Amino acid sequence: MGLKRTDEFRQDAVRIALTSGLTRKQVADDLGVGMSTLNKWITAHRDTDVVSRLRTKYRVQAPELKFTSVRNKPEFLRDLLQFLSDTSSPILIEATDKKFSLCIHLIECLIVPAVGPMDFGPKARLMKNMFADFLADNLPEDVIEMFCKACHACAHPLPGSVLKIHEREGAVPSQPGQLWSTAHD
Predict the structure, then answer these.
(1) CB 97, CB 105: distance < 8 Å
(2) CB atoms near residue 182 (< 10 Å)
(3) In the chain, where does DSSP find H-type helix?
(4) N or C: which end of the chain has fewer CB within 10 A?
(5) Are 12 and 20 in contact (CB under 8 A)?
C-alpha cells in the first residue's frame, strides 16, 4: 500500500513536472512516486484546469455541471464535449425518464405503498418497475399532471385546504394504522 500524499504535495509535483524541464521519470523518481501516479495527477490537473477555464469563459457558476445550469450555453457544451472527446475522458451522463419517475412515485405513494419488509425486496421492486413501465406508456398525461398538482398542493397546503378540512372532520388519519380503521369502520 502506497503512502497517502497531501493535495499540496500533488500540486507541487504537477507544477514541478510541468515547469521544471525535467522528464516525468526524473520528477517521479526524485519525489518517490510512480510514473503512473504522477501521470494521473497531471491528467487530473489538466482536466480540472480546462473545465475551470471553460466555466470562466462561459460564466458557468453552478457547482455541478447539470443541464439546467448550461442549457442556454451551447458553446460551453460544444467546447466541453470537444475536450472530453480529444482526451478520451470517461464521462457519466445521468439520464432520467421523468414520466417513469413520476409513475414510480405514484405507485409508491398511492397504489402499492410499502407496508412491510417484503415490500422493499427485489421481487417487489421488479413488480413496481414493470407496473411503472406500463403506466408510463399508457397513463394519460392529464392524470400525471393531476398527480403532480396534488403532490405540490400537499407539499404547500393553503390555509383552509381540502386536507385541513378533512383533518378537522376526522377523515384523514393522524396516526399510522388509523387509515385502515377509518376507512373500514
Answers:
(1) no
(2) 14
(3) 7-19, 24-31, 35-57, 67-70, 74-86, 98-106, 122-138, 141-155, 162-169, 178-184
(4) N
(5) no
Q: Are 42 and 32 in contact (CB under 8 A)?
A: no
Per the confidence metrics, is the pTM higher than 0.70? no
17-73 pLDDT per residue, tens: 888 888 999 999 999 999 999 988 888 877 677 788 888 888 888 777 777 778 788
Cell of 47: 482536466
Q: What is the pLDDT of residues 118-153, one digit of tens each?
A: 777 888 889 889 999 999 899 888 888 888 888 777
- Judge contact between 83 and 50, C-beta under 8 A: yes
Enter the DSSP assignment of 32. Answer: T
CA–CA distances in Å: residue 92 to residues 24, 64, 66, 120: 30, 13, 11, 28
Cell of 154: 400537499
Are 168 and 159 contacting, i.e. CB atoms less than 8 angstroms apart? no
